[in-house]
Design goal:
The complex is a heterodimer.
Chain A (H helix, E strand, L loop, with lengths): L10 H22 L2 H6 L5 H5 L3 H26 L11 E3 L2 E3 L4 H37 L7 H7 L5 H27 L21 H6 L7 H35 L6 H13 L2 H11 L5 H8 L13 H28 L4 H9 L4 H16 L1 H12 L2 H8 L18 H12 L2 H25 L1 H4 L6
Antiparallel strand pairs in A: 1-2
Helix pairs in contact in A: 4-5, 5-7, 7-19, 9-13, 9-16, 10-13, 11-17, 18-19
Chain B lengths: L1 H33 L19 H7 L5 H32 L5 H11 L8 H10 L7 H11 L6 H9 L2 H9 L4 H12 L1 H13 L6 H6 L9 H10 L7 H21 L1 H14 L1
Classes of the chains: A mainly alpha, B mainly alpha.
Chain lengths: ~475, ~280
């Protein structure tokens, strides 16, 4: 970093630079290549097959056939409609339903086809590169890698490809494609009134985002910021309260002279072990108006009428944060217990000799060390809490609802539980997609800020 | 000095006992209510007036599909635990030990993908599964497929552990003529027992709480519910008054094996979360 560097080119200009070089290379390979290479431009793997590299050749040829079959035999019928998402509506002709275009499938399979085309392009480029390489090797009079060594390298030098092929494919189909699809949905009018196969939906540009920021004026924007505010408040308290109280409990159990350390820890860890849908549903019911807590408070005469824990916005919010401590403290306790052992004992020893009070040693030694080491943990906890569906949903499903909030949002709804309700109850997919994108934006912004502020998050190789 | 320490310790014990009571109370209450015979709804007292096994008998009787749901969940949990662990090991080894083109890019893309909320894609996944015939009646394999397919992205903890195994060992093995595949199966996996158990344990425990997606995929088809979906319905529908103690009994039956398993493997779990927290 000390020396001066040539100012880096921006991403876009770098991309075009790379693209230019690549096109030059593709042209050059064609001009200089022999007839085998030239034919490989149309039939992938041709050159490899003729040069005796059957494994590579057959693999490429098979993939090309498969991709072409998919694109022309299946994908094209969807892809050609992607700009309109279908024009022929489903109708009833003489009491028989005649199905028209299905916007959902057009968008889904259209996107899939685009991805397959890109994959084919990549394979095609790979095929050319291999041809060029093989020609080079033969020109130098060396031998080409044999089929046997090609296969063997999949267990050795190219083992990463063997290992990652299936996981990457799985993530592609079940994570990447759906996410791209849902991002597209945010720019359409796909909702309860436009549900395929009965109805079409279509592109509406930025309409949904305009609604979000209040320009459309349906009250949706105000609710969004209300829910966002509670989401951030919740994540803040849920993260830091459990963090500091968990640390306190860990230090308490770790204290010299406390016996049965393992027993105390095991008792606390019960809340991690028992599946949350059992424990949280039960605790949620304990605080119901006809639940155990109200029952005993009434019986002892401490209150005159049942406290509506879940029907009052403020009570519900406080209670959720408190119950979350019950779930969250054990996690922090486990982690902090492991780390407490790592703090050099000499630090404490010298502090004691200097006459530091226990609180001072905590404030000046334990806390800074913990904050430094657990920076990444705090970040993942915070983001996990932003999306903490289980605690909110199993305890009270985001209630209490209020007339002043749109789209059935409740006072304890997080963005994700609201998104869930919109998908399940209201079929309001376009707004759900917008919310999902906003959750992503919030998460990304917070991560970026923390990433730049805490060194221990950044340092991947540093821990190796 | 000694006197002060004694007092301090006594205060600590009081706090710990109070904490233990708070932590255990809901579980004790759950057990007590599951044996209640006189009223199967919600009541405002703790100890049953009439002890009974009726709730458990109901679950195992012909009037309830509890065993079917339990079996579904168990199958999902076992298969997911095995497959997910294998996927995570493969991905972690490739990312920790191999240096290939696009490695950083891949990790960054996965990091960004992880920032999207999971339920965003629910409707799309549902339609994908539906095209394959893996919803409703086929919900069990469908749920397995969904959990396993995306599990590669949860490689952080395992990769972090692999990173701590010195690379000099790999280099020595390569000099001895071992292939990368042999290094993984003969060396890394035997050395990583704690983290493999941790990965499998977490993967096994996940499906027991899977309410959200399972309820969507299996919608309306009782035979493919898992315990979470089926029993949550007992608590939330309007006639839960009749099913509350049955929910308690079912909850106990779900919680016991999972809790015992967790307690036995607690040591590995602790090493996993601690490592994961520090390495991020």
């Amino acid at each position: 970093m000390e020396n001066y560097q040539v100012p880096e080119r921006s991403g876009i200009s770098r991309f075009f630079h790379w693209l230019g070089n690549d096109l030059k290379d593709i042209g050059g390979t064609f001009v200089r290549g022999d007839w085998r290479t030239k034919l490989s431009y149309i039939i992938m793997g041709f050159g490899q097959l003729l040069r005796g590299q059957y494994v590579r050749g057959l693999a490429l040829l098979a993939l090309q056939t498969l991709c072409n079959y998919f694109i022309f035999g299946f994908g094209w019928t969807y892809l050609k409609n992607i700009l309109t998402l279908g024009t022929v509506a489903t109708q009833k002709v003489n009491r028989v339903t005649v199905f028209g275009d299905n916007s959902f499938l057009i968008l889904l399979y259209g996107l899939l086809t685009v991805i397959v085309i890109l994959a084919l392009l990549y394979l095609w480029r790979l095929n050319l590169r291999q041809n060029k390489e093989a020609e080079g090797i033969l020109a130098e009079g060396r031998r080409l890698p044999t089929n046997r060594s090609d296969l063997h390298s999949l267990l050795d030098k190219n083992f990463d490809k063997t290992l990652l092929a299936l996981p990457v494919l799985g993530i592609f189909v079940f994570t990447v494609l759906p996410i791209i699809f849902m991002i597209c949905i945010a720019f359409t009018n796909y909702d309860a009134n436009h549900q395929p196969p009965a109805n079409l939906f279509t592109w509406v540009g930025l309409q949904n985002f305009k609604e979000l920021f209040g320009i459309g004026g349906t009250g949706f924007g105000g609710t969004f910021f209300y829910v966002l505010g509670w989401t951030l408040t919740w994540a803040f308290f849920a993260t830091f309260l459990t963090y500091f109280l968990g640390m306190a409990v860990a230090i308490l159990i770790n204290k010299k002279g406390i016996k049965l350390k393992k027993l105390w820890r095991t008792i606390l860890v019960m809340t991690i072990a028992v599946p949350q849908f059992v424990s949280l549903l039960y605790v949620g019911k304990m605080f119901a108006t006809d639940g155990l807590v109200n029952g005993y408070l009434l019986k002892w005469g401490w209150i005159q009428s049942a406290i509506p824990f879940w029907d009052n916005a403020t009570y519900a919010r406080i209670l959720i944060i408190v119950i979350n401590l019950w779930i969250g403290i054990p996690y922090t306790m486990l982690i902090v217990t492991g780390l407490l052992m790592n703090i050099p004992a000499e630090l404490y020893e010298s502090a004691r000799i200097d006459g530091a009070k226990p609180f001072q040693t905590f404030w000046y030694i334990t806390l800074p060390y913990m904050l430094f080491v657990t920076g990444p943990f705090l970040l993942t906890q915070f983001i996990g809490n932003l999306n903490n569906f289980n605690v909110i949903f199993l305890l009270n499903r985001g209630r209490p609802q209020s007339m002043s909030l749109s789209n059935n949002a409740g006072a304890t709804d997080l963005l994700v539980t609201w998104l869930y309700k919109m998908t399940i109850n209201d079929s309001n997919y376009r707004i759900a997609a917008v919310i999902g994108i906003m959750v992503f934006v919030v998460t990304a912004v917070i991560s970026l800020i923390v990433y730049n502020a805490i060194p221990s998050v950044r340092d991947e190789e540093g821990f190796q | 000095m000694a006197r002060r320490r004694k007092i301090a310790n006594a205060v600590c014990y009081v706090v710990l006992i109070l904490l233990s009571i708070i932590w255990l109370f809901p579980f004790v209450a759950l057990v007590l209510q599951s044996f209640r015979g006189e009223n199967s709804g919600m009541v405002s007292y703790l100890v049953p007036k009439q002890w009974s096994m009726a709730n458990y008998r109901f679950l195992f009787g012909s009037g309830s599909k509890f065993l079917k749901w339990y079996g579904n969940t168990l199958i999902i949990a076992l298969v997911v635990a095995v497959c997910q662990t294998m996927v995570v090991i493969c991905v972690s080894y490739a990312l920790s030990r191999m240096r290939f083109q696009g490695r950083k890019l891949l990790m960054n893309i996965w990091l960004v993908l992880g920032m999207f909320p999971g339920f965003l894609t629910m409707i799309c996944l549902y339609y994908l599964l539906k095209q394959m015939g893996l919803t409703e009646a086929g919900a069990v394999p469908g749920l397995i497929l969904i959990s396993v397919a995306s599990s590669g992205m949860g490689y952080y903890v395992c990769k972090g552990y692999f990173d701590t195994i010195p690379r000099a060992l790999d280099e020595a093995a390569i000099l001895d003529g071992a292939t990368r595949a042999q290094i993984l199966t003969k060396m890394i996996i035997p050395m990583s027992k704690p983290i493999i158990i941790y990965t499998a344990l977490v993967a096994f425990m996940g499906p027991w709480c899977d309410y959200i997606f399972a309820s969507y995929v299996a919608f309306g088809h009782e035979d493919s519910y898992n315990v979470a979906v089926a029993m949550t319905r007992w608590v939330w529908t309007n006639d839960y008054q009749g099913y509350f103690t049955r929910f308690c009994a079912g909850g106990i039956l779900v919680a016991i094996p999972v809790t015992i398993l967790f307690m036995c493997l607690q040591k590995y779990y602790v090493s996993g979360v601690t490592g994961g927290a520090v390495k991020g």
